[in-house]
Fold each of these.
Amino acid sequence: MSSEKHTLGKAIDILLAALEPLDEASRETAIIAVCRQLNLAPVSGALFVSDPLPHETPAPQLSLEQPIERRSRVDIRSFKEQKKPRTAREMACVTAFYLQELAGDEERKDSISTTDLEKYFKQAGYKLPTRMAQLLVDAKAAGYFESTGRGEYKLNAVGYNLVEHNLPGEG
């Protein structure tokens, strides 16, 4: 173990060096994970991960208890933990909802494919289904999605309402 004393400035330099090579979304995820690990929460009025720079328009404070339309950026893992999907179909709906309603501008999209499911299931820490290619077909048959062609599916009103109003379900 090093006996070197770390100052606040040194700690900030170490954090900046570790985060600088990452893209914005990865930086945000890393900072949120560290804050959770250290049992830290953003302080009201403090500049935090999702807060704008002083010259930008302020964004609402992140809170999973707020209605969806008032939430600012939330990561897929946190959203999955809030909604607690019990099946891969429910997780597919959570993923589609996240990409339609909550993802940052660079990620936002109206339809999803199995490639998106695999990427976001992994990011969310959700178990991958054995037959990923069949998942969206089954979720469509269950009434949660509409096909938009070329292996792309869009969450319909039933799927949207499942995520917005019915998840998490009763244990």
Amino acid sequence: MANHITYRSSRAKLEWAQSQMNILEQGLESLVKQQDNSAFFKMGKEKGELLIQGAQIHDVPDILSVHVGRIIGALRSALDNLIVQTVQTADPTVNTRNTVFPISGNTEKPGCHKWMGEKIRGLPTSYRDIVVDAKPYRGGNDKIFAIHSLRNEDEHLAINIVALRRNAVISSGSHFVVVKSEGADGKIIYTPTVTQFPDEFSVQTKIEFSGGVAGGWEVVPAISDFIAAVGDIIQKFEAV
């Protein structure tokens, strides 16, 4: 039977995070188009050489990192609000000063919940079970733990995000070139030769978190997963 608690704050923050995804995607899409504007093969045809750079990393504008930080912050706050509101509903006299959604940086053992301590004091058992089942710790629930870690990164300085460009040769063909070299006697030698150069290639840019627990994750898919994970927990609280 539903408990009739309306988690307005948690829901509002989740919905705000969802609404920001379109704005974030548009900003990142524009950045990708800028990065993919030209390939970064280095060709030296006069020497019959083809040098290929496999990847280049470019900084993402700070404003986009700030935007990501605000979304992550809203999701972390939505989880905290769940616990506080539930505890206050169960007992309005409980001091919720230290009440938060518990997330541990340690690799906790399944079934050991003592570390949650004061963070969920006064939380009814049915809700506590939801928190325990969510495995909010390192190695338990990667998405929930990443939200916690990224929030800390943002609060201490900034979330580190990069644009990683990669080249890929799709097809190459034979091309006639004249290679210039110097002989043993110091004379210049021009040698006709056939070498391979790309006829078609692609450039792909991915916007990724850099470093930390989310290092290497693509930003947009990862945040979409974070939103889904938080939404799932809110839904379970509402269904008790």
Amino acid sequence: MAIVTQRIENALTQTFKFEGKEIPLHASMGWALFPNDGEELEVLIDKADQRMYTMKRIHKNNRKS
């Protein structure tokens, strides 16, 4: 699932021009699977949110290197 998430994020990450300036566009996403990660919607959303923020931290740390 992480590979699919990464491919979607890569497809959505672009740079576009607006009024002569380059604007970077990035996407962040997390995922959760029913029922392994939970059976209630709130639990699944929380798990996906946790994964999204984990990935954002990883990407942020990689950019600093």
Amino acid sequence: MKVCILGATGLLGQALVKECGKRNYDVVTVARKNTDIELDITDEKQLLDYFNANVFDVVVNTVAIVNHKICDDNPHLAYMVNARPNAFLSDLSKIKKFKLVYISTDGYFYGDKDLKHDENAQVHFLNEYARTKFLGEQFTLTNSNNLVTRTNIVGFKNAQTPTFFEWALNAVKNKDEITLFEDYYTSSISVSQFAKSLFDLISIDSCGLFNLASSEVSSKKQFIEKMSEIFDLNLENAKTGSVNQLSSKRADSLGLNVTKAERTLGYKLPNLEEVLVQLKEEYDELRK
């Protein structure tokens, strides 16, 4: 299988490249710099010229502006990155006969506490990030052979700007004062577990929209408490709080129902403890 990873230098892109290596796939990495192919996917000509000249079985688009403030302050830029390229890629996927895989978000839900939302749940657009990611989904699905996954990934990137998990782990290790949100819920899955399950879905030619995340919904408080237990750390400077102290309304009920993915894959997706045990193993490996 020949695979193209767009956004290959990001947290997810790196994990997907690694998973391709495990499967002996022929992978081509694409980003603005430090990859096999350097291009800006917001540049229509660059994008069309490259994919018209090359043949792939699968193209995975991980590129996104995930910073909500940047998206809200620059809605045109958010559209140009998070949505518009998928319109061109989806049209090309029909002509060039590749499967386009778009990595979307769980950031469409609020006020439902720990409810698990399935693929048919009503979505809400509380910010420009959600609006543009949903447009990206819709552009991708204009080809019925394409695949969209909604998820919430956590892991290690070892970059200048830490991921959420890296920040949380370092904060607890350093005994920083942190607030644990008891009313902000996610179905977080380790990026390596997600990468494996994504390529399992691709290998059986799955199409359409899938939730691909942890099988268990947990609050940020529960997540960090369990993380501290697995990593044998003391939460002595943590206090419990509400996410509403940051904003009057935000997507805070991001639990995903993964029944469809589990039935298609034929196995259970990891629960919270299994996610954190995986992250602990990766952490120990990085420290060797």
